[in-house]
Every structure is written in structure tokens, then in C-alpha cells.
Protein 1
Amino acid sequence: MDVVDVQEMRWFRSVADGTTVTETAATARITQPALSRALGRIEREVGTALFQRVGRVLRLTPAGQLFKTHVDAILERYDRGLHEVGALADPEAGMIPLAFLHTLGTWLVPPLISDFRDRYPRARFELKQHGETGLIEELLHGTADLVITSSDPGHPALRWQRLLVEPLRLAVPPDHRLARRRRVRLAEAADDTFILLRPGYALRATTEQLCHEAGFTPRIGFEGEEVETLRGLVTAGLGVSLLPAPQSGTAAAQPSASHLRVTDVDSTRDIGLCWLADRTLPPASENFRRHVIETAHRMLHQD
């Protein structure tokens, strides 16, 4: 009987995810024939073909697709076990898998990590940035212990705790008719073209809801995937957008968009910390969770 080891399962998953045999072999630092033999051992162990060749690319058979779900689960549990045992052995030097919204990487996340490492200098972080949907997937797939995101995802498997409330500003081009104002009613932008994040981002839903509360439906001219891209499009004169105010050191070079306080609707978004509800966090991640909750109030965005 062939014996399949963990490393071979990782190679299988890599090819199953669409990486070519050539690329997988190069990454693993083995020859292509050695990788092909390893995949063959897995197929003999399973007892059926897991791949079929389509042109020059390997594609999963139906049996391969089913088998991959179990391989993913095995590797997830194995990696989580390594992570948790390592953290238990030395909680002050553990690895903390953390994911967060793109926009929070410019102001909130760095001081949280810096302050924590002042107390635990041997702690290490594995950092990932996503939109809200990607953050939730990181938690549910076990690839992140904690995520810092916006509003409560409302998922039954997750716990979410508000950290702070971040103001949103109406960003307008430097030559816009409202650019010299400090305050504005959102309704005054009803006839403007809006630049929004793509559907699926919480900030997109928040913007549409606030516009509805202000009495209009935004006319969408452009959609993007990152807040700083939207800010750049506003600066270029392509429309207006509801955005977090730029943090110190992140504003674009002159000319730059004006960010106006909105007075007719509650133009804010929640920022919170999220983790799996039914899982005990490894010691290092639990230490960081407590640290974030204890210190976030000192990092409130200053208007």
C-alpha cells in the first residue's frame, strides 16, 4: 500500500488549485517526474483517477473534487494544530494570524501591533488584507485567528465586538463647487456622480443606505476595490465618494480631494474585531485580542 504524507497532500492541493505541475515542482524544489510520481501514489491510494488532462493543464475529476474537500480539511486541522501547539509551548513567541481591511493598514493596525510587540517582543504576525467578504472567509477557513473589519457580519459562527466608530467624509475634487466648504449635507451631492466600491463591500452598502436616508439614489460612475483608488479617482475629478478621512501621512500629493463633514445623516461606520465563537484562541492570539480591545479606545480617529 502506498503511504501518502502531508507534503504530498500539499502538492496535490497546489495542483488541484490550478498551479501547474511545473510551478508546483519548482516551488517544492523537486523534479516534475518526482511530483508526478507523488500524484500517482495518491491516486493509487484513493483507487481512482483524481486528475484529467485538458490540453496542457490538469483538471480535477469529480472524484478529485470530492477528495480535495477532505484534503483541505485535513491540512487545515494539521496546520491549526501546529500553530496551537507552538503557541501553547511558548505563548509569548507565538504566531498570530491577523487579517484586516485594507484601509486600516494605514493607521489602526500598525500601532496596535507595535504596542503589542513592546510587551511581547518575540510575538510574530501573519498579516493579510481583504475586503469584508475575504476577511470572513479567512476566519471560517481557519487561516486567521482574528480579523479587524467594519460592521458586524451577523454570522452565527462568529463573534464581533465594536472597537470604535469611524467618521465618513464626502470626498470631492479640489475644483468641485463644494470643495471650499467644511460641512455639507449629503443631499447636496444628489446630482453628482458617485465613485463606489464594488458590491459586496460593507462601505458600498453603507454609502447606498446613507444616500437613501438623504433622499436620493447615487448615480454610479465608477466602481473600485480599494478606498485609496477611489480617493485618487475623486482627486482626478471623476466624481465624489463617501470615504474615511485620510490619515496623517497618507494624503495624496497636491492637488488633493477635499473631505467634508456630513451633517444631515449619521455618516459613520463601525470598526470591530471578529473571531470564531466556538473556538478557544491560542494563547498568543488571545493576548492580542485582549490587547486590541483594551487599547482601541485610545486610537479613536480624531476629526
Protein 2
Amino acid sequence: MVKARRGRAGVFKVERGELTVPERCHHVLGVDFKGWFLTGDGERFDPLTVTDLHSRFLMRAEGLPGQTRRWTQEAFRSLFRRQGLPEIIRVDNGSPFASMGPGGLSKLSVWWIGLGIRVEFSRPGCPQDNGCHERMHKTMKAECCKPPSANPAAQQQRMDRWRREFNFERPHEALGMRVPADVYHASARRMNERIKPELYGLGVETKTVNTTVIYV
């Protein structure tokens, strides 16, 4: 009953290994956009969320101007400056995290790799691969997104209050009924801001040269 189809041109097969079990803070970060919605004034709100999967600490829940590589990268640049670098980032297969290029990588994930961060992609259609992060989304949606606030500024204030409660007041069974803030700590790995792999396209071979310049 299933008819063979020709492969889509330009789409590369992505090999996915076993997902890493987080064993310490900043071992694995769960990253996603919680699905956009409209605030009371009709403005679109795109919440980017970042969770340390070991401590369950919600590091970021912020509405961005859009789900684009530019705004997402700026959000992570700010986060890395304050909290340091993780070892692994786990994302789904959507934009701006993934692409149809080699290895499923996008310009954003290439930037992460250039910083020394490993990127793990969940399986398509398997939200359970980022289970605790998705469970947090469900709670956040019910408690501070429905109904939405009057405007994006009010919605962000509401999410900030909820994030403080989630991290500092709400105990988690997976943490032995401790709150995430009791377990979480910043990373000792600092970001090297001189690394700019986004200057080159995917698949471009680069070579190191010395600083000597000869004018002809």
C-alpha cells in the first residue's frame, strides 16, 4: 500500500544517537519555543524557554520579537555571558535550531558547536525526548499564558514572576522535593566571543593562515 517516493532534493539524512542523561548542572540544556500566541492587544508573543535538565532550573522564559536565528542567537549570547556555557544543548528539528542541510545543522546550531557545545536533536514527532521541558511548558501555559495578558510587556512580567516561583518556591519530586534553585549553579565554562563561525556557510572548508600580509 505504500508507494516508493523519490527523496527530496537537498535534504540530508540526520543520524541521531542516544540522548544524554543529564548528570550535573549545565550538562544538558533543553531548549524550545513554547508556541506563539497573541496578547490582548493582538501582538504576537514568541516565548523562548531554556531549562537546565539536571536541576530543572528554568534559565530563561522570554518573549522574542520572532523565532529567527538573529533574535535567538542574541538571547543565547546574553544567557551565556551571565550563566556560562553548557556541554550539550537539546533541541527539536524546527527552525531556527535545525535545517535540511548537512547534519540537520542551522547557522544557530553551527554557532553553538563553534563555542564547544554539542547539539542533540530529538526524534521528529517525539516530544517525550525533551519530556521534563515539555512538562514545564504545559504548566507554564496553564498558569501564566491562558488567558494571555493585555500586551507583550505585561505578559513578560507575568512570566518573570512565574519563573521565579518555579525556580525558588516550587519543589520537584525528581529533586527529592527540593526547589531547582537549591540544585542549580552557573557554569564555569566561559564564552569566547571571538568565535564567529556564522561568517561561513555550512560545508565551507576553512584553513588557518598566519598574520603576515604581503602587498604586491
Protein 3
Amino acid sequence: MRVNEQEGQAEYPTGIGTSDASSIRLLGHDLAGELIGHIGFGELALWLATQQRPTPQQVRVFEAVLVSLADHGFTPTAIAARLTLYGAPDALQGAMAAGLLGGGSRFLGVTEDTGRFLAGVLATVAGHLPTTDEQWNALARRAVAEERSAGRFIPGLGHPVHKTADPRTPVIIAIAEREGLRGPHLRLFEAIGRVHADVLGRTLPLNGAGVAGAALADIGLPPELLRGVALLARAAGLLGHIAEELRSPIAPNIYTAIDRNAVYRPNASNETTEQR
């Protein structure tokens, strides 16, 4: 907020959009005359997030990441959306919101966590980035060792389903390479994939959410926005689950199965109280 000194009134500036009786402006352009039908949703979303019109190469990487994160089957986020729709079929927005609220450290949030981790490591060598695979490996080995010593997990390593390799990872890296956007975050992430077993004593795959975070960071998105991109992508998947639920519902069966198989076991303190 700022105050207009001439009029003495508070002002609330925004560069996103505005409208009047006859027009809508978005990002400094006429929405109806210049944007609708001329740009895709992915380009617009990236433009809105960065406040800079993206290059075609950035858009292609961004949209590849969106596609990679749109859905992953019956995850807790999808199940939450379906069950919420069953409980409140008159409020589809509640089902969408329920699914999005489940985006955290185990699902979707890994995109942000990986981006933050990689950015933090790169900040320690700012201005002196590695130039060879050996140097990237050394930086990655140091970072993994420090995380292990601190008792922390390496974000982006491992996957509950893809135990050996996440099929999304090499595809996103290849797209970034083709578009000339395989930058320091991806190179560091790849190096972590090469050396982590030397430190951890076991081999884990670089997961799709992690490589998405690295790729998004390399096209200029700040770490604090990366989870928002993951949620944007998953919104499409949730809409698909909700649409399928309306056509062929499974939520009633999920609810019934849990309800009929629920076992009530009073806790130990209650049992002690009853014995008294």
C-alpha cells in the first residue's frame, strides 16, 4: 500500500490485471484483443508467476513439468478430493480445495523442497559454479554428506512407487537440454543422482517431483513459488478425478469399506479407567 500525496488516499498497486466497463487488462495487455486466442494457458501461467513474458523454450519446459505433475493415480490428494465430493456433491470447489490442501512434504511439496535445497547448495559456490562433471560430483557429494550428518533426507531422492527409476526424470532432463535450459539446478541434481550411493550406501532414483523443481528453478522460478506450480498442475488431475467420480463413483465404496471394517479399540488409559 502507498499513499497518493496529492489526494491523500491509499493506493494498492498491482501489475497483474484490472478492468472497467468495457475492457479487461492483464499484464499490460488487452485480454480480449491481444491474449485470448493468441497465447496458451501454460505461457500465461508462467508469465503471471514471473511478471516477464517467457521465451518459447521456457514455456516448453514449464508445460512439460505441468504435464509430469498432473496426476499420479490414487494418491491421498485424489482420494481426498473424491471423498469430499461424496460428502458435499453441491460444492465441487470444496473437493478441489481438499485435494490441493494435501500437497505437502510427501506429495507435491517435494518440488519446492528440492528447488530450495539445490538453490541453497548453489549459493555456497555463487560465482564459482562447477564446469566439469567431476566438479559437480564433488559439490553433490559434499551436499549429500552434510545432509546425512545433520540427519536430514535429500529431497528428490526416492519414490514410493518407482523404486528403481522414475520414468519422468530422464524425459524432463532431455527436454531441458534440447531447449538449452539444462542449468545449474538440474546439473547439481543429476550429480546427486550419480554420487549419493557412495555416501548413503544405497541407490535411490531421482524422482519426478524433484527433477521438476530443478527444471523450474533453471527457467527462473524462485523456490517459494515451486509448490504453487505443482498445485497448478495437480489441479488438472484433480478435475479429472472429480469428473470421473461424477461418472463412475468409487467414493461410496471407499467410505463403506472403511466404515464396515473399522475396529474400535479403547486406548490403554480408557481400559485402566474402566477397570477401576
